[in-house]
Amino acid sequence: MRNNLRMLGLALCVLPMYLQAATGQDLKPVYQSAQGQNTRPIPSGTILPVLLNTALRSDKSGSGTTIIATVIQDVPLGRGETLHKGSTLTGHVVEAITRGKGSDESKISFQFDQVRLGNLTIPITTTLRAIASRTAVLDATPELTSSEYADNTVEIGGDQISYGQGGPVMVESQVVGRYTSQGVLANVDQDSATAQAFWLFSVNARGAYGFRDLTILQSGRTEPFGEVTLASNGMAVKVDKDSAMLLRVDGSGPEEAQARTTLSRETGQ
């Protein structure tokens, strides 16, 4: 009996390797959602347009404060999958410094830790491409002239756009994408197979828009990866609720969770 159990256990261990060899494919981790849909980690390079549900203030948001943002447009992930509008990202404030307390400027550092995809919570690392104030968002929001068309306007970042349903998104004389009822779908580059969700942002949007005095000191692209630092010469960094961010996914899934666990052990946090 024991020999039979041992043989069964060995067979179960060998089966995945046999299947991989037989199919010639790498068995990448797949998440199973409650709806029965297989979902892989969000592809690196995916653009996420989000609105902040919580304000970021260096004089009030202490280390560890939870921050929440909502995806404001359906995001194509490829393979027929979509991160739907209304999905939430959760993160935390790493550090907040007010000017005059050992610093010549005010700073706030934060990072997003996870994204809710259907009934799944997936670890994530993102970098910041652009940030826009609530006023800049309102200025770029098209006014409907009918149920299908809106006035031409200028996107956050400066590009002109025609907001007719399915209408072209132009950068100078080049068509880079199209407008949908939720916002802009555009290709980051000509080699990209999947159009990215830019919402009201230009494909060329980089930096801070609509703020009196705000700079991006750290976008999260260098160590510590995923950690964003905003700075101001004022008494405090103030980013109101309903301000918008254009994020880029640099990692998600089980490897990301393992990396965060390892980093926490190394830093003692």
Summarize the structure.
With 269 residues, this protein is an alpha+beta fold. The chain has helices at 2-23, 134-140, 254-267; strands at 31-32, 38-39, 47-52, 56-57, 66-71, 75-78, 81-83, 88-97, 106-117, 120-132, 153-154, 160-161, 168-171, 174-179, 184-186, 196-199, 207-209, 215-218, 228-232, 238-239, 244-252.
Write the layout of secondary structure elements.
Layout: H1 2-23, E1 31-32, E2 38-39, E3 47-52, E4 56-57, E5 66-71, E6 75-78, E7 81-83, E8 88-97, E9 106-117, E10 120-132, H2 134-140, E11 153-154, E12 160-161, E13 168-171, E14 174-179, E15 184-186, E16 196-199, E17 207-209, E18 215-218, E19 228-232, E20 238-239, E21 244-252, H3 254-267
Parallel strand pairs: 10-17
Antiparallel strand pairs: 1-2, 3-5, 3-21, 4-20, 5-8, 6-7, 8-9, 9-10, 9-19, 10-21, 11-12, 13-14, 14-15, 15-16, 18-19
